[in-house]
Amino acid sequence: MPPLVEVKPDGALRLNFHEGQLRAWDSQKRFVVVLAGTQGGKTEFGPFWLHREMQAKGPGDYLCVSPTYPLLEKKMLPAFLALFEERLRWGKYHAQSRVFRSKDGKTKVFFGHAQDPESLEAATAKAAWLDEAGQKKFRLPSWEAVNRRVAIHQGRILLTTTPYDLGWLKQKLADPWEKAGFAHPDIDLVRFESIANPAFPREEYLRAQRELPRWKFDLFYRAVFARPAGMIYDCFDSSRHTCPRFALPEHWSRTVGLDFGGVNTAAVFFAAERDRYNAPTGRLFLYRTYLAGGRSAAEHVRELLQGEPRLPDAAGGASSEDQWRLEFARNGLPVREPAVSEVEVGIERVYAAHRKDEIVAFDDLDSYLDEKRTYSRELDDFGEPTERIDAKETYHLMDAERYAIAWLKAPQTGAFAIARDEEAPVGVEGAPPGVFEIGGGPW
Prior knowledge:
Elements: E1 5-7, E2 13-15, H1 19-26, E3 31-36, H2 42-57, E4 60-66, H3 69-87, E5 91-94, E6 99-102, E7 107-113, E8 125-131, H4 140-150, E9 156-161, H5 168-179, E10 187-192, H6 202-211, H7 214-220, H8 238-241, E11 242-243, E12 254-259, E13 265-274, E14 280-292, H9 297-305, E15 313-316, H10 322-330, H11 343-355, E16 359-362, H12 366-374, E17 377-379, E18 385-389, H13 396-408, E19 437-438, E20 441-442
Helix pairs in contact: 2-3, 9-10, 11-13
């Protein structure tokens, strides 16, 4: 079994790609997704692909991105430096700035991590390599930021990863490629299993097949998308719970759910469907999302109300976040405290609404759909879901939705009698306090 790289007598490098790597090497598409099983040879492939792009595009800036900084230092950077510093001696990596500079100073490679999308906005790149882009910590905003960086040069992007969930990588790349009959004009997806790498022991592959849950084996050894254990909204079905965008009737009532935060304030907007007789159907159309930070309450309110036909009902925030609600109310958007503060109760109400097909999201709401399809529980050492929500602090839209649905789908109070007999009070006097209201105040 020859090594990946051989040095020929004349000093040239010979690359011994296996079949899967060779298919990715031959692809001329703008976006090349290498979906590979663990230890399949995906990360080792990246530096050679990037080197070829540099030769084709010439001097300039290039981009390498990993999900986190520790993973960047552990996997991506060593593979890159093994080729560019040790074998080719092209230049030097500067750890403080995370930039590789060629000896002649004409080419730079910027290294970034996807947990901070703003860190990816510095360069105008001619090509980009994204390693482990399928990980949960590699979020959709980071993918969008990389696309902006290569837009001027229409640069190519290589993604090398194992599939981890059903998030944006599947929605934005794998699904369009499949729907195009595997002949998408811009996207190529090359999938190979762990044993495509001749160095991977077949015995280890068979052991994993025997001992692991099917979903985990499919994801990590076969590189096949599967629904992981612990997904919170496992009943969410795109065929029933999404639809193309359409013009919403203005008379449908609107509700916004809010999740407050100094760095990220999130909102989801629902329109309550009515039938041709103007009766509510019980279905809610999710038509808009909002996620922004670094703004005052007044600025948030102004942006939230922009384009809305009238003042929407609003609910949101934890029970302790009265100051946020007060600031929003002072600036023109009264916000109710959620009907329930318990996270699990809110999740149950959203789950029940999905099961009854009562929530339909517009299919262009990419950030919402990415969160919905990756929102999951932490797994224990045996691969079983725990009660803890994995990376809960990053799912702002899911929290905002939970606040809205907990209020919109709150259980109705029971009926009471309005009757006259010797024992019961007359008329409305027997109603629970506050039920009958006129002009905003109870009778």
